[in-house]
């Protein structure tokens, strides 16, 4: 299951806050802030999708993420590689290193990361 762009924006605020009441989430948005009803609708949809849980305190709900940001992002990157790069991480890496404006230093840092992963395998 996937989140819409507006749900992802809200989820990013919740990942940063870790736990939040409605007021906390609204405060996290820049101006112009969304309407309370909009955020409530998004939270309901995200709860139905099992991305967000909550704890009741009287009539107030404290929301928290049920999905880790790393897990969500990893699933999307893997889907991107599968759908756009014929399930080839090498094709993705080739595209990424050629089509992004990485400096030589950033490419060297990537190489070090890859070399470390090779050593660990």
Automatic annotation (TrEMBL):
Signal peptide span: none
The UniProt record lists the keyword DNA-binding: yes
Protein name according to UniProt: Transcriptional regulator
Record keywords, A-Z: DNA-binding, Transcription, Transcription regulation
Phylogenetic classification of the source organism: Bacteria, Pseudomonadati, Bacteroidota, Flavobacteriia, Flavobacteriales
SUPFAM superfamilies referenced in this protein's UniProt entry, alphabetically: Winged helix' DNA-binding domain
Source organism (scientific name): Aquaticitalea lipolytica
Family in the record: Belongs to the BlaI transcriptional regulatory family.
Annotated GO MF terms: DNA binding
Top-level division of the source organism's lineage: Bacteria
């Amino acid at each position: 299951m996937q989140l819409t762009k507006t749900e992802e924006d809200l989820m990013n605020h919740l990942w940063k806050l870790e736990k939040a009441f409605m007021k906390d989430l609204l405060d996290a948005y820049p101006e112009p802030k969304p309407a309370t009803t909009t955020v409530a609708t998004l939270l309901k949809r995200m709860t139905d999708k099992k991305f967000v849980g909550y704890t009741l305190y009287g009539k107030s709900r404290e929301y928290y993420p049920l999905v880790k940001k790393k897990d969500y992002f990893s699933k999307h990157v893997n889907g991107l590689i599968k759908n756009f790069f014929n399930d080839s991480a090498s094709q993705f890496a080739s595209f990424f290193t050629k089509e992004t404006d990485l400096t030589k230093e950033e490419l060297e840092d990537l190489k070090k990361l890859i070399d470390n992963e090779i050593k660990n395998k």
